[in-house]
Amino acid sequence: LPRSIFGRCVALCAYVRMCLAAVYVCLNVQSDLIFCDSISACLVVFRLFRLFGLCQAPLFFYCHFPDLLLTEHQGFFKRLYRYVVDRLEGWSIGMADLICVNSNFTKGVVAETFPHLDATKLKVLYPTLNTKFFDSAPETELEDVPSSAKYLFVSINRYERKKNIKLAIDAFAELKSLISDDLYRECYLVIAGGFDKLNEENLLHHRELKEYSVDAAISTKQIAFLRSPSDSVKIELLRRSTAVLYTPSNEHFGIVPVEAMYMRSCVIAVNSGGPNESIENGSSGFLVESNARAFAEVMAKLIRGELNRQEIGEAGRKRVQSLFTFEQFSRKLETLMQSLV
C-alpha cells in the first residue's frame, strides 16, 4: 500500500495500513497482549473483533504526542480532511485499555486534547537510552572542530524552525559580551542535526542559519554546521562539549538532554516541556528562559569555572542511570503489561 497519494493523505494511508495489519493480526496471530505505537486507528479494528470474540487480547497504546497538534490545518480541503482524521484519532485512542505517554508534559497535553479519556488509563513511560551503545563508542576525531577550541558548545536538533536553533546562535553571540576577548576566541559552536536533502525545510533552514550566524557577527572560524553527523561524531561532540544548548520550547520529551547527561555533558535547556522532567535544575543541568542572555550567562559561568562541570556531569550520569536506562524502561513496561494480563 502507498505511503501517500501523490504526496498527500499521508496520515490516512498510514491509518489504512495499520488497520489492515490489525485485521491480519486478529485472524492469524494468537496474542496475549497487543502493543500499538503512535497510530491509534487500528484500535478500532481490534475492538470490533473483540465484540465478536475473535480477539480478546488487551490493548496497550503508546502515544508520543497527539497527531492533530502536529499538523497544519490550512485551506478548506485540508481542514475537511483533518477534521475526519482528527476525530478518528480522538475516538480511537480511547479504545486502548492502557495509554502510555513519554512524559508528564505530554500526559497533560493528551488529557487536555482528549478530555473524554479515562484519566486512570494514562501512564507515563519515559523513553529509554541504549547506554551500552554509548559506552562502546570509541573516541573519534572531530575534523570540523579546530584544536584551538577549548570551550565547545553544541546544539543537536533536526534542521527545523520549530527547534529554535537560532537561539543557540544568539546565545553564542551574546557570550562575547560576558567574557574576555581571549576567552571568547577559545570558544566554538557546533550546530549539528538531522538533514534530508529532499526536505525543503531542511534545505532552507540550514541556509538561513548559516546566513543568520553571519548577521550575528560570529566568525566562520568559530562555528560549524554539521548535516546528519554519524553516531560516532554525535557521541564525540557530547563527550567533548562544555555544554549542550537545547533550544526547543515545549518539547514532548527530548532525548538529546538525556544523551548529553549520560555522556557527562552539562545541558542548558529551555525551562518547558520534557526537559523540566529529565533535567534536575542546578544539579544535572540548567533550565533557563528562552532567551539568549539566560543561556549565555550559564555558558559564561562554565567558562570562568564558577560552576563545577565535573560534578554536574556526574550528577547527570547518575540521573540517567536512575530514570532512563533500558533496565528502568523494561521494568516499568513489564509492570504495566502485567497489570493488563
TrEMBL record:
Q: Does the keyword Transferase apply?
A: yes
- Gene3D superfamilies per UniProt: Glycogen Phosphorylase B
GO CC annotations on file: endoplasmic reticulum membrane
Extract the GO molecular function terms from the UniProt entry: GDP-Man:Man(1)GlcNAc(2)-PP-Dol alpha-1,3-mannosyltransferase activity; GDP-Man:Man(2)GlcNAc(2)-PP-Dol alpha-1,6-mannosyltransferase activity
Membrane topology per record: Single-pass membrane protein
- Localisation: Endoplasmic reticulum membrane
Give the main localization category: endoplasmic reticulum
EC primary class: transferase
**Residues in Glycosyl transferase family domain copies:** 149-319
What pathway or pathways are given for this protein in its record?
Answer: Protein modification; protein glycosylation
Q: Does the keyword Mitochondrion apply?
A: no
Give the record's keywords alphabetically. Endoplasmic reticulum, Glycosyltransferase, Membrane, Signal, Transferase, Transmembrane, Transmembrane helix
Q: What is its EC number?
A: 2.4.1.132, 2.4.1.257
Q: Which residues form the signal peptide?
A: 1-21
| Catalytically driven reaction(s) | a beta-D-Man-(1->4)-beta-D-GlcNAc-(1->4)-alpha-D-GlcNAc-diphospho-di-trans,poly-cis-dolichol + GDP-alpha-D-mannose = an alpha-D-Man-(1->3)-beta-D-Man-(1->4)-beta-D-GlcNAc-(1->4)-alpha-D-GlcNAc-diphospho-di-trans,poly-cis-dolichol + GDP + H(+); an alpha-D-Man-(1->3)-beta-D-Man-(1->4)-beta-D-GlcNAc-(1->4)-alpha-D-GlcNAc-diphospho-di-trans,poly-cis-dolichol + GDP-alpha-D-mannose = an alpha-D-Man-(1->3)-[alpha-D-Man-(1->6)]-beta-D-Man-(1->4)-beta-D-GlcNAc-(1->4)-alpha-D-GlcNAc-diphospho-di-trans,poly-cis-dolichol + GDP + H(+)
Q: Which residues form a coiled coil?
A: none
Q: Which PANTHER family match?
A: ALPHA-1,3/1,6-MANNOSYLTRANSFERASE ALG2 (PTHR45918), ALPHA-1,3_1,6-MANNOSYLTRANSFERASE ALG2 (PTHR45918:SF1)
Family the entry assigns = Belongs to the glycosyltransferase group 1 family.
Question: What's the protein called, per UniProt?
Answer: Alpha-1,3/1,6-mannosyltransferase ALG2
**Taxonomic source organism:** Anisakis simplex
